[in-house]
Every structure is written in C-alpha cells, then in structure tokens.
C-alpha cells in the first residue's frame, strides 16, 4: 500500500495536485459546544466580559478556515472564494451549534478548511466564556457534506 503523503524515501510530502482538474468544491462542517445555563445566558444577553461572543466566534471561524494550511501540515494553501457561518442557539442543551461552509474553484477540496473553521470558532467561544464555565464540552465536529472533485459528493 502506497501512502500518498510519503515519497519514495518515506519522507513526508504534500500531494501534487497540479494535474487535477479545477472544479467548484464546497464543504460544510459543524460542531457543538455545551455550556452551563449561566454561560448561555451571558452569551444571549451579550454580557460576557470579553465582548460579543457569537460575533467574535464567526470572525474566528472565518479566520480559522483561511489559516488551515498553516495549522495542518499536509494541507495545500487554498484561495477560498467563500466562507459562510451559521450559529444556532440550543437553549435546551444549553449550547450552540456552529456550521461553516467553505467554497472554492480549484484542484483540491475544502473539507479541512470547513472543519478547521468550526474548531477555531468553537474554541473561541470556549475562550470567551471560560471565566464563567470551565466545564464546557466541544463535541461532534464533523463533515456534514461535500461536493466537487474526483471522489464525488458526500452527505452525512
């Protein structure tokens, strides 16, 4: 079995995608952060001491998606054409669900960008609320769907 990220001398390498066709590629990922009722209320009332939690998480998610190749060693630097976010309030949990959609026209997919965006966005929520709730749980970071490329479409 040949591993795609090792060269003939078993040294790590980034896969050469130069012969792959440019296609429109979209990936959507999501994740959940569970918080205490007190932390949830602080977010909803916009009284967290570090500022507007959800707005900051959206900016962080976009920034995280754009920085993926700097954080994940074998990821290609990509020219993203769009990063969209959505945060769903989950009062019954309590917590929040963050969804990130990344898009480009290129030779490699954007799954890692969407997943990294979700991770960084949720970590930002944690950072902004840790003075209120150190027991927050980040979970279910997952690819929801992808389209474009040779491997075809995926829908969870």
Please state the structural category. Answer: alpha+beta
Number of domains: 1
Give the overall shape.
Answer: elongated
Low-confidence segments: none
CATH architecture: 2-Layer Sandwich
Function: Catalyzes the conversion of (8S)-3',8-cyclo-7,8-dihydroguanosine 5'-triphosphate to cyclic pyranopterin monophosphate (cPMP).
Subunit structure: Homohexamer; trimer of dimers.
Domain Molybdopterin cofactor biosynthesis C (MoaC): 14-149
Pathway: Cofactor biosynthesis; molybdopterin biosynthesis
Describe how the helices and strands are arranged.
Elements: E1 23-34, H1 37-44, H2 53-66, H3 68-71, E2 82-90, E3 95-106, H4 111-129, E4 137-147, E5 154-155
Keyword list:
alpha+beta, five-stranded antiparallel sheet, Alpha-Beta Plaits, 156 residues, MoaC_sf
Structural account:
There is one protein chain. The protein is of the alpha+beta class and 156 residues long. The chain has a single domain (23-148), classed as Molybdopterin cofactor biosynthesis C (MoaC) domain (Alpha-Beta Plaits, 2-Layer Sandwich), CATH 3.30.70.640. The protein is built from four helices and five strands; from the N terminus they run E-H-H-H-E-E-H-E-E. It has helices at residues 37-44, 53-66, 68-71, 111-129; strands at 23-34, 82-90, 95-106, 137-147, 154-155. The chain has a five-stranded antiparallel β-sheet with strand order 2-3-1-4-5, covered by helices on one side. Helix 2 (53-66) packs antiparallel against helix 4. The radius of gyration is 18 Å and the shape is elongated. The two termini are 28 Å apart.
């Amino acid at each position: 079995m040949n591993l795609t990220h090792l060269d003939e001398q078993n040294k790590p390498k980034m896969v050469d995608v130069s012969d792959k066709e440019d296609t429109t590629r979209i990936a959507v990922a999501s994740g959940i952060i569970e918080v205490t009722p007190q932390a949830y209320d602080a977010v909803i009332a916009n009284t967290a001491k570090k500022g507007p939690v959800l707005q900051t998480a959206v900016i962080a998610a976009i920034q995280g998606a754009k920085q993926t190749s700097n954080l994940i060693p074998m990821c290609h630097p990509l020219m993203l054409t769009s990063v969209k976010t959505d945060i769903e309030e989950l009062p019954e949990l309590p917590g929040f669900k963050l969804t990130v959609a990344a898009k480009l026209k290129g030779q490699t997919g954007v799954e890692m960008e969407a997943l990294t965006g979700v991770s960084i966005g949720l970590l930002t929520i944690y950072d902004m609320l840790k003075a209120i709730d150190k027991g927050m749980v980040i979970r279910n970071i997952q690819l929801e769907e992808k389209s474009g490329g040779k491997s075809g479409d995926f829908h969870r």
